[in-house]
Queue: 2 jobs
Job 1
Amino acid sequence: IEDLNHYIEHEKSTRLRKQTRQKRTEIKRYKKKFAAYSERKYKYKTQKAILQDRNSYSKTDHDATFMRMKENHMKNGQLKPGYHLQIATNSQFVLSYDVYQNPTDTRTMIPFLTLIKGTYGHLPEYIVADAGYGSEPNYMAIINEFNRTPLITYGMFIKDKTNKYKSDIFNTHNWEYDEINDEFICPNHKRLGFKRYAYRHDKYGFRRDFKLYECDDCSECPLKN
């Protein structure tokens, strides 16, 4: 831009000066975009450092996370910045408590149990909690890492007991299973044989293992629609 400014000042031809100004305008436009992108990149980097592994934070209190509060006088499910308090009790006595930034119960259980074990040196034999804490990572951690017994229902526990759920023919949990041949039988009486093992990592790094089953031919299935 400086070179073009110098050229415009010393060029006598009006036509050439006009062409040079157009070229300078285009370069200035790119420079402005670059400056905006650079500023935005710095802002995003700062925000990500505050967020860490959360999905939100309050601008007035960076440690607070937006959560859907149960007690809300507006009764419209407002999100408000807050903290997640966990309290462990035994025979109505408070054993321990801690405050977390994450709004979900499932992700607070393992660090909370680790805190209790670090404080007392051991955990109670039975870990009792409601369905909000039921997850595969929590079950595995309580059994394998803490060597304790979880008494925690899973999230679908009540829904699994409904007639609508148990009578749904397209729900794979209701399909007949041939244990000897390791095959499922679909509502069209086709057999789905075991294909392969698979795994998937969630966004927190936990590995979930799966068994995949597949039918040889579903092309002319009357239930396809």
Job 2
Amino acid sequence: MSLARRLAGLYPPAFRQRWGPDLEIEIRAAGARSWPNLAVSVAAMWLHPAIWPADSRSQRHARAATTAAAVTAAWWMLTHAAVELDDRLGRDVGHSWALSGCMTLTLAGLALVVPFPRPRLAVLFSSLRLLAVPAALGGLVAVAVQLDALAGAPGWIRLGLLATWWASLALGAFQACRVIARHATPPSGRRLRRGMWTLTATSAMTAAVVLSLSAANGHLGPSPALVSAGLLLPMSAYMWTLNDLNA
């Protein structure tokens, strides 16, 4: 396989299917001097799936919905990890009504962005197959904790169960996005935009909640600041997607 073809293969599949040969010719003609610009172009395309070549507006909406689900899952895991792994942050924020309200709004935004999968038996079986492994891993850890099986267990077992728990969350989020991409009926443009605006506002609100509650409890250290900054990144992704949908 030629180097130009390998570099063209870095683009999203929709680009390769539509313009693969032309991309190879352009990369080969530009030479090595174009590689920095090529890297920027590839990264930009992966960050804007709503503008990938599509056969219909519905396909663009489906990609935007999948992007929103993936970004939301990522920032939910960030919040969850910060609260679980930082004891003081967990005490300040973890059980607050404000954070619970933000999570409720997040679910409302997702409900607007990602409709339920198509009600077909084959879709149900496919979805269950994709989610079976993360559900089993998470259930295993939950049962072990509920039965107090960790009492007196060696450190490596505790560490293994902790790693299994986080792996189940990450794999579950990944597989859920696959279910959405494969089987969910794309939302209408109006509903998609409402959901994206809700998620945008919620990510900003969550960052503000983490900072304000930490400050109120005298805990304005690096951890709350980093978490809040990290929670603003999804807001940028939502705004990009909204802009792409309006393009």
